[in-house]
C-alpha cells in the first residue's frame, strides 16, 4: 500500500504548466539578483530523524528531503517537517462492557512511528490525532468481545491483536504501530469485593482439603504403627516408658503415673 502510494506521487513530477515555469524563472532571477542574501531563504536544514515533504505551487514533489541541507524556491515552495522517531501516547481510560456483561475501565499505551513521510502528510490531515482516535475505538471494539477473565489473564494476546488491527488501519496514513501495552484494568468496587470473597472462599476450601488429606495420612500412619506395636510384645512396653520419660521432662508440680503395664498384661491374656 505504501509503495503504491509513493510511486503514484513520484510519477506526478513537476508538471505545473506555463505559469509555473514563468514563476519559477522569475524566482530564480530574483534569487540570483539578491545573492547572497537569498541564501538564507533558499537553504533549509532538517535533522537526521526528520524528513521534509515539499510542495511547489500546491503539488507535492517526489521524494522526501533530508537529512541535511536542501534547496527551496521562495514564494513557490513550502515544506512540512515530519519526525520519524517513535512516539508514544496514553489511551484514555475507556468504559468497556465485556462479553460477560461486566463494566470495566481499561487504558493502554501505544508506540508508533511514521514510516512514509509523504503519505502521512498528503493522505491524512493529522496522523497523530487520527491514530489516537483509532486507538480508542479499537480498544473498545476488541475488549468488547472478551470476557473479564480473558482480559485479566490474556493481556499480551489482547495487546497483540490490538497492534495488528491498528497497524492495518494506519497503513494508508504512513504510520507503523510498533507496540501496544494494556496498562491497567479497573474494576467496580462491588465486583472487587465479590472477587475477593470468591478468592477467599476458594482458599478456605483448598485449606480444608489439604487438612483432610493430612488427617487421612496421619490416620494411616497411626494404623500402621498400631499394627507394628501389636505384633511385638515389647514394643508396647517401650512406648509406655517413652511416654513416662516425656511426662517427667515437663515442669509439672504433680505427676500421676498410670497403672503399670505389667499388671494389665495378665488381664489382657485372660480375656483372650
TrEMBL record:
Q: Please give the start and end residues of each transmembrane region.
A: 20-46
Domain of life assignment: Eukaryota
CDD domains registered for this protein in UniProt: SPFH_stomatin
Keyword annotations: Membrane, Transmembrane, Transmembrane helix
**Domain Band: start-end pairs:** 41-199
Tell me yes or no: is Transmembrane among this UniProt entry's keywords.
yes
Report the locations given in the UniProt record: Membrane
Q: Name one GO cellular component term.
A: plasma membrane
Say if the entry is tagged with keyword Transmembrane. Answer: yes
Family per record: Belongs to the band 7/mec-2 family.
Protein name in the entry: DgyrCDS4129
Q: Which organism is it from?
A: Dimorphilus gyrociliatus
- What does UniProt list as this organism's lineage? Eukaryota, Metazoa, Spiralia, Lophotrochozoa, Annelida
Amino acid at each position: 500500500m505504501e509503495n503504491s502510494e509513493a510511486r503514484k506521487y513520484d510519477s506526478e513530477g513537476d508538471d505545473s504548466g506555463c505559469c509555473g515555469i514563468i514563476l519559477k524563472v522569475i524566482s530564480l532571477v530574483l534569487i540570483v539578483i539578491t545573492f547572497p542574501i537569498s541564501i538564507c531563504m533558499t537553504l533549509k536544514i532538517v535533522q537526521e530523524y526528520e524528513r521534509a515533504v515539499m510542495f511547489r505551487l500546491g503539488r507535492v514533489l517526489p521524494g522526501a528531503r533530508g537529512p541535511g541541507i536542501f534547496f527551496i524556491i521562495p514564494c513557490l515552495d513550502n515544506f512540512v517537517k515530519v519526525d520519524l522517531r517513535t512516539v508514544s501516547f496514553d489511551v484514555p481510560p475507556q468504559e468497556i462492557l465485556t462479553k460477560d456483561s461486566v463494566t470495566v475501565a481499561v487504558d493502554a499505551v501505544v508506540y508508533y512511528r511514521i514510516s512514509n513521510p509523504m503519505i502521512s502528510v498528503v493522505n491524512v490531515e493529522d496522523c497523530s490525532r487520527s491514530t489516537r482516535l483509532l486507538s480508542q475505538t479499537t480498544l473498545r471494539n476488541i475488549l468488547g468481545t472478551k470476557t473479564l477473565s480473558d482480559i485479566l489473564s490474556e493481556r499480551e494476546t489482547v495487546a497483540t491483536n490490538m497492534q495488528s488491527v491498528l497497524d492495518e488501519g494506519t497503513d494508508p496514513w504512513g504510520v507503523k504501530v510498533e507496540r501496544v501495552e494494556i496498562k491497567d484494568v479497573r474494576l467496580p468496587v462491588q465486583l472487587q469485593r465479590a472477587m475477593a470473597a470468591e478468592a477467599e472462599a476458594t482458599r478456605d476450601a483448598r485449606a480444608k482439603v489439604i487438612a483432610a488429606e493430612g488427617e487421612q495420612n496421619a490416620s494411616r500412619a497411626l494404623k500402621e504403627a498400631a499394627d507394628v506395636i501389636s505384633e511385638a510384645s515389647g514394643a508396647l512396653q517401650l512406648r509406655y516408658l517413652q511416654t513416662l520419660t516425656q511426662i517427667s521432662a515437663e515442669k509439672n508440680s504433680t505427676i500421676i503415673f498410670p497403672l503399670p503395664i505389667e499388671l494389665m498384661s495378665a488381664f489382657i491374656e485372660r480375656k483372650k
